[in-house]
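Q: Got a minute? One more chain.
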Amino acid sequence: MWARALNPSRVTSRRLAAAYIARRRLHFTPVPFAVKPFFLADIGEGIRECEVIQWFVQPGARVEQFDKLCEVQSDKASVEITSRFDGVIKKLYYDAGDMAIVGKPLVDIDIDGEVAEEPAPIKLEDTTPAEGFKSQIPTPSPASTTAPNIPPEHKHSKLATPAVRRICKELGVEITHVQGTGKDGRVMKEDVAAFAECLKSGQTAAELPQAPVQPPSTAIASETTAPLTPMQMQMFKTMTKSLSIPHFLFSDDVHLDPLTTCRSRINAELASGNVSQSAQKISYMPFLIKAMSLALQKYPILNARLNTDGDKPSLVMRPQHNIGVAMDTPAGLIVPNIKNVQNLSILEIGEELLRLQRAGAVGQLLPPDLKGGTITISNIGNIGGRVVSPVIVNSEVAILGIGKAKTSPAFDCHGAVVPKTEMVFSWSADHRVIDGATMARMATLMKEFVEKPELMLARIR
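A: Always. Here it is, folded:
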């Protein structure tokens, strides 16, 4: 019995059989790698390029869906681009500071890739079947078990506008060495000028003061040439197209005292806490936006878009009232819009307007906030000026400019002199499709809603 078990020929046969079974059962094929380019999507209406401010990843880093890839600065807002795939970053197409093109590849992502090296092939004839099976199980390497290295701070990780970064380039100043005095550490023009002046005096970066120093104005002033910022470049393109639109202006005075009384009562209720509302008070703008929407229901042609792409021009009638509100922000003029105003109450309009104002002040407006506007209101009254001639963008046919409210003496219905608060509504319309009579009727109806807010409230669904 022992002799049969220890027979060399039988031992050899068992080993060959085991090796054969292992070869039949353990079959490994290389995993095909799929490298997908990640394209820069359209982040705003009419934007064709944007500046890469900073990268959050480097080649070789593993990312998952919704991980931040980079931050880009358009002419309207700063946007963080997130990944749509799980995988490994293979290639960055742009460096920080480059202008990325919408619709072109931004990064390459290996959606089946691994950071670690592939295991070496196993030679079954040199091992037993159990050892060969265990050796095929990949052991996690340090590269795959640890988080990817965070890229070192670079010149675009500081908060600063493109204009400030351009000044740093002209003066040869490294922006990471400049102590920002703006909100959230934002580097201002004065900070860069003070830093450059201190460098000229021979101080090192460690010796430079933290607070900005106003440089003495001893040099003779001379003309300088500065390139347009991305926002100025977009404004240049948009307004150049607007020059092809034949504008006509219609203006009228609007009596605000009845609306002021109505607004004061609503704000008193908001302050008392009887109404569930995030804002403690609302401005005149939500009332004006709603009044415009109600007037558009009777004159929908003012909400249309002129299509000139085909052989014959046509009007595209748009049922949704996406009313844009021009805003003055630290980065420049932007025009986000409030979606579907026809379905919102005045308080809901006030909440959405407050959200857009807060996001615009810190450059965090989302791309949908800037798309799809159908008509615009531009309020210069909070800065100054009574009358304005607003300019129409090529995707709309009308725009309303609002001036500063003014209280002046006037006669009432009994002939007595009373104070009267008025503001000027200045309309611009596309004379290719809008005639003066239609514009006047639309403006008069909106004026009636503002001067008699009870009529406006009665029509709100």
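A: The two ends are 99 Å apart (CA to CA).
Q: Perfect, thanks.
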